[in-house]
Amino acid sequence: DAKTTQPPSMDCAEGRAANLPCNHSTISGNEYVYWYRQIHSQGPQYIIHGLKNNETNEMASLIITEDRKSSTLILPHATLRDTAVYYCIVRVDNNQGGKLIFGQGTELSVKP
Amino acid sequence: TAGITQAPTSQILAAGRSMTLRCTQDMRHNAMYWYRQDLGLGLRLIHYSNTAGTTGKGEVPDGYSVSRANTDDFPLTLASAVPSQTSVYFCASSDFATYHSDEQFFGPGTRLTVL
Fold it and tell me: What's the gap in Å between the CA of B28 and the closest CA on chain A?
């Protein structure tokens, strides 16, 4: 699976949009981009995933560049409860077990 | 539904002793996983099971064993614990065959200290 690069930390003001970038320049055609987050002392939580089209759900939006070498997770109105470590993961959906490779992630701090 | 439960919540274990970490899911997911999380190293996959009766090795399988006798349970056994196995252990499950997605659901974790 391709490697991802994320900034180690970011700050965001409460109520503003949080834009978390991820580089995955070696991504291959059949690899999906997944985002998870981990709130302190809890298990990771799935947020969203996509292949090449932009995706939106109740939690976030995922914007993938046309060349698929990078993506951005957008939390449209960040709250204090969104403070967490956010992981960007690329993997193949090959109908096999999901061996997620978690990197270091981005530690997002939402401030009042 | 409970989702995924893990037991115990935390444990202090003497080196050389054995221990089984329990994981149960009630979502009828076909795949289950064990990860460990260490400060500065993120989450690393220990073992996984794509379906009942099958298991596979992840990134860091040494010192651990698993079994998958049925769909719901996926216990992780440390046969002879060592201090380097001090970590937080997370169990997870997913059902890619049904949902065509690797959305993994994680348990609350077990904090293990080996002295």
Answer: 15
